[in-house]
Amino acid sequence: MSNKKFKKNKVNKFFSDNSNLWILNGYNSDGYNYPVAAKRLNIVKKVIKKIFKNKKTKILDIGCGGGQVSIELAKAGHIVSGIDQSDVMIETSIKNRKKLEAKLKKNVNFYQGDVDTNHLKNDEFDVCIALGLIGYLEKEENLFKLAKKILKPNGIFIVSTRNKLFNMQSLSFR
Fold it and tell me: What is the average pLDDT score of the chain?
């Protein structure tokens, strides 16, 4: 098995085994856990609002996880496509989408895929986000190539990653 395939399988297994806990800890603060995902979502919403001035934008959420960011951006009036390589995370995203009212459902869709997914069109999106994804990739340059391909001229790419030193200080399972 190639190293790339091994790493992809390892990441898939991690998220299959830990998806619910990952989502819960990312969005909820219990005094011990810092809700990193919720904080990143707030920053992304502010950046998009500042740059696009409340204009409806078309967004690709790469590594969408359980769909929370994609759904919140759809609630803010954007058209969002979320992709994730984990089938468990996509199942969770789709379940979360089903809870939305009909007019919001049409603004958000989820697909299983990864940065090597080639069905995306050139110049298709105003915004591309990859929140916490880059540390799981075998080759980061594939993420940047995909963003360059799918972003419209003057589109924006929002990337976040955890400081590698975080894991040395954190008591969490991550």
Answer: 82
- Which long-range contacts (C-beta less than 8 Å, at least 24 apart) are formed by 60-63? 60/120, 60/124, 60/125, 60/127, 60/128, 60/129, 60/150, 61/129, 61/131, 62/115, 62/128, 62/129, 62/130, 62/133, 62/143, 62/146, 63/130, 63/131, 63/132, 63/133, 63/136
The encoded tokens of residue 159 equal 């990337």
pLDDT score at 172: 45
26-64 per-residue burial string, b: 16 or more CB within 10 A, e: under 16: bbeeeeeeebbbeebbeebbeebeeeeeeeebbbbbbbb
| pTM, entire model | 0.78
Say if residues 42 and 71 touch (Cβ distance below 8 Å).
no
**Residue 90 tokens, joined:** 């996509």
Q: What is the pLDDT of residues 2-21, one digit of tens each?
A: 555 545 566 666 666 655 55
Query: Is the predicted pLDDT of residue 40 greater than 60, yes or no?
Result: yes
Residue 144's CB is within 10 A of a number of other CB atoms, namely 16
How does DSSP assign 37-87, residue by residue?
Answer: HHHHHHHHHHHHHHHHTT---EEEEET-TTSHHHHHHHHTT-EEEEEES-H
